[in-house]
Every structure is written in structure tokens, then in C-alpha cells.
Amino acid sequence: MTTAFRLENTFARDLEGLFVPSAGEPAPDPQVVVLNTTLATELGLDPDAVGTRAGAEVLTGARAPEGSTPIAMAYAGHQFGGYQPLLGDGRALLLGELIDTDGNRRDLHLKGSGATRFSRGGDGRAALGPMLREYLISEAMHALGIPTTRALAVTATGEAVQRDAQEPGAVLARVAASHIRVGTFEFAVRQRDPLARLADYAIARHYPQLVDSEPAEKYVRFFDAVVDRQAHLVAQWMSVGFIHGVLNTDNTTISGETIDYGPCAFLDAHDPATVFSSIDINGRYAYGAQPVIIGWNLSRFAETLIPLVAAARGDDVQSAVQALTAVLETYLDRYSTAHHRLLRAKIGVPEHPAADQLADDLLALMTEHRADHTATFRALADELRGDPAALNAVIPRESSAAWVARWRELPAGDPVQVAAAMDAVNPIYIPRNHLVDAALTAATAGDLQPFNDLLAALTRPFDADPALSAYAAAAPPEFADRFQTFCGT
Question: Given phi > 0 = left and psi -120 to 50 = alpha, else beta, which region is 17?
């Protein structure tokens, strides 16, 4: 069965010095707990074979499939602003790469497969709850149309891991365009030798249109492409109220995918200062800070490219710095443009000179009244259909009336069609924190039904179903007031 994975190993083949060979630890009783059969098929895998005992052994790292060269990837990173020269995959393995049915190369990566040389004293294991959490939220993000790593499976290992208490052990198998991070470049630039190889590999894999660019411009254009993808990614996060929670440079991808769903969460009440992560005590990665932090991370990425750009320009460091800075200075405008484009669609006024200010004013109202982020945008379509109840429930009419009057004056076409278009971009179901918490508590105790039910709702986030009304409700105040997230390690 293991031959069905048909893995390639271009990262291990081409980027010596940026990884160490590694292997997963034995799993006494591996069993697939949840399998993404749709994704498995997309990857050219047989879901029935993947779900067997032999498949479970591969998915925990206990058995390497034929053709695999398992490695732990090396990277550095700025964590909460402080530079760490060596991080790396402390509890993860890159098994190799799959070519999916569309011809795309995608990493197959295990999280929780055991200790590696980068474990820094940790046990390298993972608990079932946090792995199911990443599965649930990453698949919800995919359904929302947001670039993300995907979850292939969560597999129980058959042994307990010790955290605050003993918890069932599990491994997440996830798929990504790649796991190359800003932190990978921060590690490579200090090794010097792998830096050009890493940049050329990343360009060929993610931005092949740049491969034949003139050397003096190739790495600047590469930086420009990454800046653009990250600007659009964080705009999408902000539009749905997603808070990553730990936006260190080692959690910022070159591909522009969302990665590492440790202490992430979604807004209930709209508030730019919202922080859920227990370790973010100063609010560095608060919801409203995310666009600026991504810009900061991109600054660190630009610094790693200076030697390459300078070398291509006759060792002209000043020219390299100027060229990269010129690109970086466009980042916030790109973010703002992307974010406002999404906001205009969310309020149903895609093209009007007054729409951006109108959207900003709505966000201010939402902050003032701590209005539910998801419910407010969804309520606007009901307002157009003549039902004000949903909007009144999140913002008192005496406060929203002036905004609603301005909004209705803007030309937007037939109200029925506009409302339908708004429903297509404003989700009704997101991973509400209280629902995720309840589903994971039940799953850890052995009951997967709440998890499966929630997952089913989240994979159709825009399609209202009266039978699913509980999945659209905000958290009870007593839950929201005390809720915190944790990194899950």
C-alpha cells in the first residue's frame, strides 16, 4: 500500500544544508481518526488504502512510504520580535512531495510524529485535540476561499502524551504548496551557501514565471510577488475576522498560504484589539495588528535577499537595499486596496467612490458596539431584503440608521441580486470558538459526532440552513469573556 503515496523529494535533493534526515517514532496502535477523502483523491491517493493500518503507520511517521526521504526542515525566525537563529521542525517531518491530479507539487508533512534534532527538549508529540483543531480550522479556511495548508488526516498513535494532563496522542498529516517560510530564508542567509539555491528553488516552485528574469531583477521581482500574495492573504484574514495568533516569521510562508493554526481563533465581537492567545501578553499579534506585523515580517524577508540582489548588481548593496525598499513601501497600499475590495463586496457596493469610506465607517460602528463580526455582514443582505431584525440585533437602529441611509443611497443594482451576491461572500458559518471548544472536548473523550457535524457546516460556510442555526450563534458572554487559545505543544 505504501507505494500508493508516490512521493518525490526535490527539497531534500536540492537543498542540502536546510534539513536533517529524520524518522518518525513508533506508534503502538495507529488508527486514522478522520480522513479527508476528497483531498486524498485530489492528491491521487486511494482513500480506502490510506485508511488501513498500513496507511495509518505512514500517517503517524512510524513507517516511511517507499521512495520517501523523511526530513526535519531547518529554519530560524523572529518570535515575538526576538531573533532565534535555529528553530526547525521540532515535532514534524516532511515525508516528500505529491503531484496532485492537476499537476501541482504539494508537500506531505506530518505534525506530532516524534522528536527531531530541532526538538529543543520537547517530546515531539502532539495531542489529539490540537491536531483536530488544525484540521477543522484549516478546512474551514479552505472552504472560505483563503489560501491555506490543508488537512489530509488526523491519526491516533495509541499512546498518551503528557500536557497539563495525559491526553490521547495523534499526528496531523497536512498538505501545502510548500513549507518554505520567511524563517527558512533567515536560516539560509546566515549559512550563505544555500541562499541562492533556496531562492531559485522557491522561485521555480511558486513563481515559475520569474525563472528566466534578468539576474539583476529576478530576486526583486520574487520579493514583489511574495509581498503581493501576503498582502492579499492578510486582507482575506481581516475580512472574515480571523486571528492567526502567532505571526512569527517562521509562520509566514513564501507561497502565501496560511500555516500553523496553533492559538488562532475567529472574532465574535468586532474589536481590533482582540487577542485570544495566552502567550501574546502584549497584543503584538492582535487582530488589528496583523497587517502591520505581516509588513514587519516581509521586512525581515527583504533583509535576507539583499546579498542576492547586491551580487546580481555588481555587489552594489545600496542599489539592492533601495530596490527592495521600494517594493516593501508598496505593501500597505496593496493590503489596503485588497482589503477594501473585499469590504466593498461584503457591503454590496463593489464600485462606488464613496464605498471605501462607508465600509470603514461600518467597521467603526461595529467596534463601538462590539457587534458580532460575521453576523453583522451577513445581516446586511437581510436588511436589503426588507428584514431589519438581524442588523438590529447586532447594532441598535438608533446607531445604525444614518449609516444604513447612506448605504441605501449608493447605486448597487437590483436588491435581490445584490443580497444574493453578498451572501456569496459573507459566511454564515465560521469556526465559532465555543463550538470548536465543545467539539474538541467531546472528541478527546471519544465522541467524534460534534466534530463531524461542525466540520460539515464549516465546509459550506455560505449556505444558510435553518437546521444549522446553532452554528451561526455567537458565543455566550460567559464563554467569550474567559476564552483563551493555546499553542497546543
Answer: left
- Cell readout for 400 is 445604525
pLDDT in tens, 363-406: 999 999 999 999 999 999 999 999 999 999 999 999 999 999 99
Residue 396 to residue 341: CA distance in whole angstroms: 27
Instruction: With beta carbons less than 8 A apart as the criterion, state whether 262 and 318 touch.
Output: no
Strand partners for 52: none
Between the alpha carbon of residue 196 and those of residues 23, 60, 189, 204, the distances in Å are: 28, 33, 9, 12
Cβ atoms of 203 and 222 closer than 8 Å: yes
Which residue bears the cell 472560505? 144
pLDDT digits (tens, 9 = 90+) for 172-209: 999 999 999 999 999 999 987 899 999 999 999 999 99
Cell 510548500 found at: 178
**Which pLDDT score is estimated for 488?**
65
How many helices (H) and strands (E) in the chain? 19, 11
At residue 409, φ and ψ (nearest 5 deg) are -75, -20
Q: 98: helix, coil or strand?
A: strand
Domain spans in the chain, listed from the N-terminal domain onward: 2-176, 182-337
Checking 377-382 for CB contacts under 8 A at 24+ apart, the result is 377/346, 377/347, 377/422, 377/426, 378/423, 378/426, 378/427, 378/428, 378/472, 380/346, 380/347, 380/348, 380/407, 380/422, 380/426, 381/348, 381/418, 381/419, 381/420, 381/422, 381/423, 381/426, 382/419
Burial of 208: CB neighbours in 10 Å, binned 0-12, 13-18, 19+: exposed
Q: Which of 89, 107, 224, 250 does the annotation list as catalytic?
A: 250
Catalytic residue status for 250: yes
3-state SS assignment for residue 105: strand
Question: 48, 69, 70: which is closest to 4 by C-alpha?
Answer: 48
Given a contact cutoff of 8 angstroms between Cβ atoms, the answer to whether 233 and 258 are in contact is yes
Average pLDDT over residues 319-332: 98
Please name the residue that has the C-alpha cell 513507517.
63
Residues 47, 49, 50: CA angle, nearest 5 degrees: 65
Residue 288, phi then psi, degrees to nearest 5: -70, -15
CB 144 within 8 A of CB 461: yes
Secondary structure class of 455 (helix, strand, coil): helix
Quote the radius of gyration of the chain (alpha carbons, Å): 23
